[in-house]
Amino acid sequence: MALYEEPYGAILEALASGTPTPGGGTAAALAGAMAASLAEMVANLTLNRKKYIAVQPQMEQVAKEAGELRARLLSLADEDAAVYLGVMAAYKLPKGSDSEVIERNGAILRAIEQAARVPLTTADCALRLLELVSTVAQKGNQNALTDAGVAMLLGQAAVEGALYNVYINLSSLEHKPSWAISMTEEAENIARQASALQLTVREQLQAIK
């Protein structure tokens, strides 16, 4: 059964267990999914309100896209656990002969690439989510501004947590292939954009102090 189909308690128990998966990458994706739910909620609380009629089409689009991101991030929560199991399996391959060593090394490289690519996708989804959060914080129902604030915090946690998993996987490579260099550059770009978006939402939240 997919992790997201489990009740909250079971998910927390799974994260707390002594097994390597699910771990931080899964938790980051779940944080992103919760952020998406909150962004969708703020958008829905803005719809059909006379005061916000001018932004109704925009809020409809935000709600739709936030729902799609929520589903994608929930899927990535399970994918993250699966790809890490793939890394562990690759390291357990036999290495008794030269051909086995070559095959094992290739399998490890492919597994690490996947193990880095999944959280990079999580971070990218969470970045797009932060853009939606910024929109609802600025233009959405201001009675739900703090909900947008919590969405921002969870979305930023999703970005940073996912990127930690990208970096730790790439750091295990002795020699960086071109795809690893490209992933590092993309990760750094996502981090910069996420930080900027977080600041815009924090500035909006100053209104409640």
Share of helix among residues? Answer: over 70%
What's the helix-strand series?
HHHHHH
The CATH class name reads Mainly Alpha
The major beta sheet can be summarized as: none
Shape: elongated
Number of domains: 1
Q: Please state the structural category.
A: mainly alpha
Radius of gyration: 19 Å
What is the CA–CA distance across the termini?
A: 44 Å
CATH superfamily name? Formiminotetrahydrofolate cyclodeaminase monomer, up-and-down helical bundle
Strand content: under 5%
Structure, explained:
The mean pLDDT is 93. The radius of gyration is 19 Å and the shape is elongated. It is 79% helix and 0% strand. The protein is an all-alpha fold and 209 residues long. The protein has a single domain (27-208), classed as Formiminotetrahydrofolate cyclodeaminase monomer, up-and-down helical bundle (Four Helix Bundle (Hemerythrin (Met), subunit A), Up-down Bundle).
